[in-house]
Structures are given as C-alpha cells and as structure tokens.
C-alpha cells in the first residue's frame, strides 16, 4: 500500500506533494494558516484541488489539471477515516452502535458489526462503555470511542486532526498511549501543534508553511537538525545558517563561528548549526577574545519554568532569573550571545 499526493489550490496558495509507505505515520506541523487543514480536506474529499493527483493503494482519489482525465472520488468510497478534534459521535446511538456504524453501513450484518465494534472498543480500553450514550461520556472517553469508530471502518489511511487538542491536559497522555499502540498497525497522517505527538506517534514529519513543505524527514532528524525557523522554535533550538568555513560557519552578517561537532558539507557550501538556549551565555559587553559572539538586541524576556528566556530576533538564551537581574538587561538592551564550539552541532543545509 502506498499513498501518493500532489495538489495545488491557488486561492489558498497551497502546493504540496509527498508520498507515504505502508504502515508509516506522518506528522504534519506548521504555523496557523499554513495549510494543514487544507491538506486533510483534500485527502478526505471535502475540498477539490485546482490541479493534482492522489492515489491510495492504486485507487485514484482525485485527478485534475491540464492533460489529466478528471477523476473525483466521493469521501465515503476513499477508504479513509478522519478523527477530528471533537469526537462527533451520533448522540442517539449507544457507544456500541456508534462504533459499529461504519461496518453496518458498508453492508456487514449487525451481529458481525457488533463483534468488530467490541474488538475495537477493547483495543482502545473502552469495552465497559458499550451501552452508554455519548452524553454519558467524558471528553477523553468520547475521543477513545471516536478512535474505535474510525478504526472499525478498517481504513487504508487514517487521518487525525489534532486529536488531543480538545482534551484536558491530564487525559491526553492516556489517549496518546492508546494511539501509539493502534497506529503501529496503521498508515496514518496526524496534524498536530504538539512536538510530543510528533515524537511519540510519528515516524516522519513534514512541516508546512505558506502552503509549501519546508521540512520533510525522519522525526528525530527534523527536530535535531531543523532547517526552518518554525521547526527550530518548536524543537526549542537556536538555528544559525551560513556558509561552511574550515572552523565552522560564517553567518550572512559575516560573523565567524567555531563549531566543534557534527558533519557538514564542503567548505563554501550552505550549512546550519543548532544550539540549545540553555548552552548560550549572555554578556552586556563584547567578550574579550571575540570568539563565537553574536551581537543582538533583546526583544523579549519570558519565564520558562525556573529559567528566563532572553530572546533576540532569531536567537535565545535560557538563564537563571538571578543572572538576568545581575546583568540588568531588559527589552532593547544590546547584548552578545556566546556559546562554546562543543555545544553546537553543524549540519549541511541540503541534508
Ligand atoms: N474556507 C476557506 N476559504 C478560503 N480560504 C481558506 C479557507 N480555509 C482556509 N483558507 C485559507 O487557506 C490557507 C490555509 O489554511 P488552513 O486552514 O489549511 O491552515 P492550517 O494550517 O490548518 O491552520 P490552523 O493551524 O490555524 O488550523 C490560509 O491562508 C487560510 O486563510
């Protein structure tokens, strides 16, 4: 089973293509308005592209554009289930009938559909709720039932639209554990704003910005070696981009930085370096040796746990509050960020 997708929607400035292998779980991340819902809508069939072509397991979902024979498969024949932020259960049906709904409407006998529904309810640890009506369930319980209902339809591709977003923070981890288990046997695409969802559920990540894919790769690599500022911010890393030099890299502003670790392309090629904000120091005068010093102006000071994030336009340092007080810095103060060569990792921009 493979899924191939290519679609453009001009009025939304959306132009994305990618493919997915059998059993792969792909996380889709990106800022608000990036095009994540547009992507899910195109795949599930609630939106039609201006041009493009998508195939699931050899079955054409849509085909449009010049030189292509127009194909449009309605949502219910695509072999795709969508799990939304809200459980959206049928209020008048019991939990069992809600989960059996997919199999029953595809012509399976009621008894067989109920057997399948019980199997899926057990799979999501919700067997005890089968006689209840949706109004008698908590948000977390209802979302479990929605997972069972989505899986009972035996989709070739499961779409998840921020499935944890509407849940209380204390029930999300249990649902995340359930999803981790059931997604092992599924091909799935999960839209999320949460890096933890991507780390725990996805083999691969794409980041969409302005309707284009700006990152695509295995989850760990994308977050450890981000190319895009949005991804770097999500991963809690500073990323500097520049040209590879024998010592490290030279930024576009001409600052020469020594970087001790990592592998990058040839001298003169484009590269990036990632540095944790907790590995960055701040001083209010230029360091005497001038090494690895980035001049900046503070744009923001924000509390982060027991540290304070001292932020400039594209760079940040996490410092203890007492140190921030000693430095006597505030928004608008000119500072120098410094870091040890060994605390940064360099990598090729064309990974
Ligand atoms: N119904 C619509 N009609 C016209 N344009 C739309 C419509 N829905 C979204 N858009 C536009 O398409 C672009 C992509 O929006 P989309 O909803 O796909 O982003 P998103 O990544 O899902 O954002 P969010 O994280 O805020 O949900 C945006 O520029 C948005 O304004």
From TrEMBL:
One of its GO terms (cellular component) is ATP-binding cassette (ABC) transporter complex. GO terms for molecular function: ATP binding; ATP hydrolysis activity; transmembrane transporter activity. It comes from Subtercola lobariae. Transmembrane segments: none annotated. The keyword Cell wall biogenesis/degradation does not apply. InterPro entries: AAA+_ATPase (IPR003593), ABC_SmlMolc_Importer (IPR050093), ABC_transporter-like_ATP-bd (IPR003439), ABC_transporter-like_CS (IPR017871), Mo/tungstate-bd_C_term_dom (IPR008995), P-loop_NTPase (IPR027417), Transp-assoc_OB_typ2 (IPR013611). Residues 3-235 form the ABC transporter domain. It comes from the Bacteria. This is Molybdenum ABC transporter ATP-binding protein.
